[in-house]
Amino acid sequence: MTLVSALLGFAVVAGLMTITPGLDTALVLRSAITQGRREAVVTALGICTGVLVWAVAAAVGISALLTASEAAYTVLKVVGTAYMLWLGFGMLRAAFQAKPHDQAPTPDLPVQKTGLPECFQRGLLTNLLNPKVGAFYVALLPQFMPADTPHLLAGVLLGLVHTILGMLWLSLLAYTAHRARAWLSRPKTQRLVDGIAGTAVIGFGLKLGLSRH
To answer: What predicted TM-score, i.e. pTM, was given to this entire model?
Structure first.
């Protein structure tokens, strides 16, 4: 297997994984609708940075260590579950909070004021605290490692492929949701979005917490 064929083959698998709806999709859509396109793109950047970090970690063996060590995996899983539950319940709380003036905000203005560093941090931690992302790379990367390419270099390149695909897809979602914001940014719709996104995040957190490996 050449490096080019490995990258192309991995791009197909990573592309299918990227467009499959999941926690990343829920976070970006929620951010685009309740905050703004820029915040959603920065959230996506945090998510994809986490993907790249896990890819590099898998290439140097850190993720393999987490997979092999039950204690390390369990600690990371508990922290990740707690973080997702905290994030999800925060969204649900926002969904049930009554707004004093139930008027549709201007579509060009952010509905909820959240700093870009917080958006990036939310996306980054969601991925970094999910050991299943690391396990995914440990299982998948060896199948796309060319024999004549250093593992670290191959891992970085494969991670970049996944990162680029993720940024393109999530940015498209952010742009599409933002375009429909005139309707989606209505207070009732926002609360519905917060409720759906919060329930999804809690669901992913519980799934992670109850998983055995």
So the answer is: 0.71
